[in-house]
Design goal:
The protein is α/β, with parallel strands linked by helices. It has 14 helices and twelve strands. The radius of gyration is 21 Å and the shape is globular.
Length: 370
């Protein structure tokens, strides 16, 4: 494990290894970049096969959060944490409280949230030891389920795609195929049917499928057939790597725009492949930033109306991404990275001049001073 070489490779700022004998906690917190603000990112719990595997994962995920926050226009940096352990067998109040104390020890440089393997309950245990945690239940003053905000942002992003492709952002009469109608997919289908779009859905979970078809008018296809549906827009809302060597040639759509994370199996090849096929791709981490916008809102006192409004801003952000892609003749996922990097570089310069006490609104909020 060549730790400093790994930090230097993608310019990570800080790595914290956390161990607690009583609870058996083994965690790694990675902070990638705090130019824009404190690093925010979830805590993933997984039975990693080795420390190296956990380290590779946390470094990659932390860097992804830097880009996501920057592109979303948030004053947050990128970070992530992993707890090494089986979420079913090893989770306990003691473990998450020990973890919470390590988060507290970072003094607000890292703010955590739930991720795969952790949930609202786990974050409530973390909250007992630190205020640097988001994704708490609505009942405790937190932001609760992020999926309505993610769906609103995804829908706004689809409208931006439609505007570029067809000259109008109305989705009335457009045919959208949706892969996965879980938490986000459900609300997305709601927006689409209300807008007058024709919707085709699929899911591997019969209950989730029934919930959507009972509530909204939509057609159903088998999960494997979703890639072959001739439609205007394909919305991946289930799992990652769905744009791959098998599915790319099968797609019969003009736009790919959905909430799933890491949609491109091989970012470089499949991002370019979509571009060459003439398919407009809404970069996943930009169009699905509603979830992050939702938890970021918790830092200033949660208000869902404000979070939904902010998620609608994804329309303008994607429009900027598409402008960069056109001007620089590059795939849209690359253009999103460039947008994020430029914002970090520019704001980094603005922040470089000295202010006594650094009494900006964000600094005050984070210190809990109104
Ligand atoms: P979810 O688990 O509630 O829903 C996913 C749905 O996809 C489930 O109904 C599942 O049965 C279905 N599915 C799984 N494999 C499938 C397959 N092969 N074919 C068809 N359907 C399949 O998850 P979610 O919260 O709705 O999130 C959906 C996607 O969006 C995920 O990739 C998630 O990482 C991403 N995302 C979610 C949020 C959020 O706010 N929940 C925010 C950002 C990104």
């Amino acid at each position: 494990m060549r730790v400093f070489e790994q930090l230097a490779a993608k310019n990570h700022e800080q790595l914290t290894f956390c161990y607690d004998e009583v609870s058996g906690l083994m965690a790694i917190i990675a902070i990638h970049d705090t130019t824009l603000g404190p690093a925010l990112g979830g805590t993933r719990m997984r039975a990693y096969a080795s420390t190296d595997e956990a380290l590779t994962d946390v470094l990659r995920l932390a860097r992804g959060m830097t880009f996501k926050s920057a592109a979303a226009g948030l004053n947050l940096g990128g970070g992530k944490a992993v707890i090494i352990g089986d979420p079913k067998r090893d989770r306990s109040e003691t473990l998450f409280r020990a973890y919470g104390r390590f988060v507290e020890g970072l003094g607000g440089r890292y703010i955590t949230a739930e991720d795969s393997g952790t949930d609202v309950r786990a974050m409530e245990w973390v909250r007992m030891e630190t205020n640097w945690v988001t994704g708490i239940s609505r009942a405790l003053g937190g932001s609760g389920d992020p999926s309505p905000v993610t769906a609103r942002g995804t829908y706004a992003g689809m409208m931006a795609c439609a505007k570029l492709r067809w000259g109008s952002d109305s989705l009335a009469g457009k045919h959208v195929s949706v892969q996965g109608v879980g938490a986000v997919g459900y609300y997305l289908v709601k927006h689409l049917t209300e807008a007058g779009a024709k919707v085709t859905v699929c899911d591997v979970d019969a209950d989730n499928l029934k919930r959507v078809t009972d509530a909204f008018k939509c057609e159903v296809v088998a999960p494997e057939a979703i890639f072959d549906v001739p439609a205007d827009i394909f919305a991946p809302c289930a799992l990652g790597a769905v744009i791959n060597d098998d599915t790319l040639p099968r797609l019969k759509v003009e736009i790919v725009a959905g909430s799933a994370n890491n949609q491109l199996d091989d970012e470089r090849r499949h991002g370019r492949g979509l571009m060459e096929k003439g398919v407009l791709y809404a970069p996943d981490y930009v169009i699905n930033a509603g979830g992050l916008i939702n938890v970021a809102n918790e830092l200033e006192g949660y208000n869902q109306e404000r979070a939904l409004k902010q998620a609608e801003g994804i329309y303008d952000i994607l429009t900027s991404v598409f402008d960069i892609a056109r001007r620089e003749d590059i795939p849209t996922h690359k253009a999103a990275d460039n947008l994020a990097l430029r914002r970090i570089a520019e704001i980094g310069k603005v922040k470089s001049f000295y202010i006594p006490g650094a009494n900006t609104r964000q600094d005050r909020t984070l210190r809990g001073v109104s």
